[in-house]
Specification:
heterodimer; A: alpha/beta; Peroxisomal Thiolase, Chain A, domain 1; two-stranded antiparallel ribbon; 14 helices; 11 strands; B: alpha+beta; five-stranded antiparallel β-sheet; three-stranded antiparallel β-sheet; 2 helices; about 10% helix
């Protein structure tokens, strides 16, 4: 264990289709928001971590160099972390390590993406191995559909029950997004609208899938001394877990999903969480697809395997439920990929410091943040607390 | 400055880079096998798993896997997805079914296509294609030494 580390400030852009600004200008918007709200200036920052999805997304390589000026990194060390969909969570972990190691006291961590400028699904296809796998699983929906399909058959969950639970999740999240000023898609959906939406990859329909968003998120990681010096309310990093699997889709089980299980259990162990559904007050689960969100609940031990649909339909994971999940609307409503995992961490920090505004879960003290990357290959979990 | 809604200019850009990707000895031998309508795996000497496609080391035991074996061209469907959307730079055109197939006698799932059935109606596909269904490899007549030398896997009737 290293030194204690806290988040003492977050900044987000308005997420959406952002052709009103260039990519560096978008990143600057998040960094400015962070410095404006905290009153902390770049002079106090020891180092900078930046990350995005693969560079093919926007057609500029080494994006951290592209953003060097707006990251106020001149004269400072800069690092890039890139782990596909889990980039944002990996960025947070990188910032955490840097401070926990004692090598820095204040680290600026920024994740960003401008998905509307390129072809996001084509970019994700280049994540796949070129001789064998790239021929068959293009883009994200095909992969997640196979995974969900295997899950439903293995646990004998009736299709209509999964559809009902997924519909409940997407209606709730798109409604919750109205209370998050930064969210991209906000919509009052009806069951009929969701159930009859066009098929993307059977049985995944339009409202089961996240949008392409442009956006950025900036977070300040601080040592205990810096927390005292700055006088900011801290969100302490209580647990960190990150776990990976083989590169090839087919080499490991994606239903009883080891990387998701292990990442959460490592984070729980470090944070002293023994019963997540009781101990956690709120969770920001990476949910680009409704069906996958259900599987994540089970892998994280929020409920038993095969039970996520029942619990969702009972309202266990709703805003007023036992463990509210994604009160921000989550990835399902807002997905600027390189920023997305860091937004989960930011939301967790806002919740445990009582700063989440209209989507605040009253009295939240312990929060869960998660992201997943690659072809179902990596999972990252962070636990944030109001107390050290 | 102009007030109200402003449309800013968009630069149209394209990056097209040709690549030459070296396959190395293991892929080369595997694809030579496909040309002869043989699917090769390697066995891990430590965990004894049969790994397909053949590979030079076990990703879990970190040991060399130099024992090659030809495996069955029949197996069962583990999971599948019907894709109806055309993705950029993907050689397979929709509609198609991507699937994980557990080839008989192997310990990893092999990714390929399910074919030989009518794919035009998703409801028909859903009622026809089932996990656990027995399938067998169908070969393309012309062999190019790529994964597409196997045309697809079709249901065993």
């Amino acid at each position: 264990m290293g030194r204690p580390v806290a988040i003492i400030g977050v900044g987000q852009t308005r997420h959406g289709r952002r052709f009103d600004v260039s990519y560096p200008e978008l990143v600057k918007e998040a960094v400015d928001a962070l410095f404006d709200t905290t009153g902390i200036g770049p002079d106090d920052v020891d180092g900078v971590v930046s990350g995005t999805m693969p560079s093919m997304m926007e057609g500029v390589a080494l994006t951290h160099f592209y953003f060097a000026d707006v990251l106020r990194s001149v004269g400072k060390p800069i690092m890039k972390t890139e782990t596909c969909g889990s980039t944002g969570a990996s960025l947070a972990i990188t910032g955490y390590y840097w401070v926990a190691s004692g090598m820095a006291d204040l680290v600026l961590v920024v994740g960003s993406e401008k998905m509307n400028e390129g072809d996001s699904q084509a970019t994700m296809t280049t994540v796949l191995e070129p001789f064998y796998q790239r021929y068959f699983i293009a883009g994200a929906p095909g992969i997640f559909s196979m995974q969900s399909q295997e899950w439903s058959v293995r646990f004998g969950i009736p299709e209509d029950k999964i559809r009902a639970a997924a519909t409940r999740l997407t209606i709730d999240h798109h409604s919750d997004a109205f209370d998050n000023p930064y969210a991209h898609i906000k919509k009052k959906l009806t069951e009929e609208e969701v159930n009859n939406a066009r098929i993307i990859t059977y049985p995944v329909r339009l409202w089961d899938v996240c949008p392409n968003s442009d956006g950025a998120c900036a977070v300040l990681f601080a040592s205990e001394d810096k927390v005292k010096q700055m006088g900011r309310k801290p969100a302490w990093i209580r647990g960190v877990g990150y776990s990976g699997e083989e590169y090839w889709f087919g080499d490991s089980d994606k239903v009883v999903w080891q990387s998701a299980i292990q990442a959460s259990r490592e984070a729980y162990r470090m944070a002293g969480v023994t019963n997540p559904i009781e101990d956690l007050d709120v969770a920001e689960v990476y949910n680009p697809f409704t069906f996958q969100e259900l599987l994540f609940y089970e892998c994280f031990g929020f409920c038993d395997f095969g039970k996520a649909c029942d619990e969702t339909l009972k309202g266990t994971f709703a805003r007023d439920g036992k463990l509210p999940c994604d009160p921000s609307g989550g990835t399902l409503c807002t997905n600027p990929i390189g920023a997305t995992g860091l937004i989960r961490v930011s939301e967790a920090a806002l919740q445990v410091t009582g700063q989440a505004g209209d989507h605040q879960i009253p009295g939240a003290k312990l929060a869960f943040a998660h992201a997943m990357g690659g072809v179902d290959q990596y999972n990252a979990v962070l636990i944030l607390g109001s107390e050290l | 400055m102009v007030s109200g809604k402003v449309e800013y200019t968009i630069l149209k850009d394209e990056v097209a880079i040709p690549y030459e990707l070296a396959m190395g000895p293991t892929w080369t031998r595997f694809f030579e096998g496909l040309k002869e309508e043989k699917i090769y795996a390697t066995r891990c000497p430590r965990c004894n798993r049969v790994l397909v496609p053949a590979r030079s080391y076990c990703p879990r035991c970190f040991v060399e896997t130099d024992q090659w074996l030809e495996v069955s061209q029949e197996g069962t469907i583990v999971c599948w997805a019907l894709t109806e959307y055309e993705y950029f730079a993907i050689p397979v055109k929709p509609p198609y079914i991507g699937a994980l197939i557990k080839l008989d006698g192997t310990d990893t799932n092999f990714l390929h296509l399910i074919g030989g059935i009518d794919l035009s109606d998703p409801e028909y596909v859903r009622k026809t294609v089932k996990n656990g269904m027995k399938v067998k490899a169908v070969w393309n007549t012309e062999k190019k030494g790529t994964i597409m030398d196997i045309k697809y896997f079709e249901p065993v009737r």
